Amino acid sequence: MIINHNLNAMNAHRQLGVNTISAGKSMEKLSSGLRINRAGDDAAGLAISEKMRGQIRGLEQASRNAQDGISMIQTAEGALNETHSILQRMRELAVQSSSDTNVSTDRNAIQDEMNQLTKEIDRIATTTEFNTQKLLNGSFSNKDFQIGANENQKLTLSINKMDTASLGLTSTITINSGSVTGNKLADGTYRVSGTSVYDASNNSVGTISGKVVKADGTAVMSLTTDNFENGSLITISENGTKFSVKGTIDGTADDMAPGNYETKGSNVLKDGNIVGTVSGNVLLIDKADGSKLAVSGGNLGISATAVTSGMSFTINGVDASTRDTAMGSITAINTAIETVSKERAKLGAYQNRLEHTIANLGTSSENLTAAESRVRDVDMAKEMMQFSKNNILAQAAQAMLAQANQQPQGVLQLLR
């Protein structure tokens, strides 16, 4: 027997320390609910878990981004819903003014409401915003929504300009000086087919590559092949002093011929003479250099007074002041309604897509969370079993340490 070194006590003490540490780790896991509380618990598992956590948080933020995108789209679509309501009212007014049961006073009152409704459409287009960003004034273009957890997982949205000019209800041009010449056409209605113009007797009277002029030679209109479609109608009346165009025509606003232009009712006056009315989709007048001026955008009617060289005036696509212009306005408003409908349909499609995106992001986040849980979370039942074992072993080691400490006392019996 030896007394300088109590090996049994040393062994019991070491086992007590091991069991106490193991029980402490089990207590930490049970209290946190995590299997990995530090890198030492599982270095590889910790690295995998942290990558998953980053992905999960990215998916959750992407879902919030998509929800913000839906809120923004709903803001724009709600404004366009009101624009739709205004256009429907304007169409109703145009139909009302198209009836000759109305007199000029009635039509003037109708036109007053038309003007206010037109201004309201422009106000909606210029003031609708989300988080200080204008939505309907044409500046919201190629905007990205980050709808994924990784780089370039985005959705790009553009919202078209939704003011009256973009809807074909108004347009502005500037007048400059110049001179024109052209070919005369007699009174009557002319039909466009291909590049040819036919009169009421179906006789070819020329091609669409010239100018419509008054009987005195004053040019009032330019016709080009590029600007007319088959089936367009050109009406010349009152000895060449009055014309109208019906059809879908494209063109670009530019300079007008020289002279003073003003309006009176539905008529366009040049130097005091009636030079035309507009009930088609474009007004074409020769520029100073001989090329064509084409003002497009709905069924157009000039709205200006005493316009001289260098000044600007507005082309109004809705005019209820006469029966003819009111009837033409119906087509213009129909086109505007269709344009707004297309934009709302586009926004609705984006909203539906974002709703599916949110659902998919939620599913992905849920699955990743489950995977991360399997890596990092502790099995409480299993860990409780480990804790109970380590706790019992620690108590046993403590008891054995007490017994081992009593063993050297036996040496005293030998010394008596």
TrEMBL record:
Pfam families: Flagellin_C, Flagellin_N. Residues 330-415 form the Flagellin C-terminal domain. Keywords: Bacterial flagellum, Cell projection, Cilium, Flagellum, Secreted. The keyword Transport does not apply. The keyword Transferase does not apply. Its main location: secreted. GO terms for molecular function: structural molecule activity. It is found in: Secreted; Bacterial flagellum. InterPro entries: Flagellin (IPR001492), Flagellin_C (IPR046358), Flagellin_C_sub2 (IPR042187), Flagellin_N (IPR001029). One of its GO terms (cellular component) is bacterial-type flagellum. Residues 3-140 form the Flagellin N-terminal domain. Flagellin is the subunit protein which polymerizes to form the filaments of bacterial flagella. Belongs to the bacterial flagellin family. This is Flagellin. It comes from Fervidicella metallireducens AeB. The lineage of its organism: Bacteria, Bacillati, Bacillota, Clostridia, Eubacteriales.
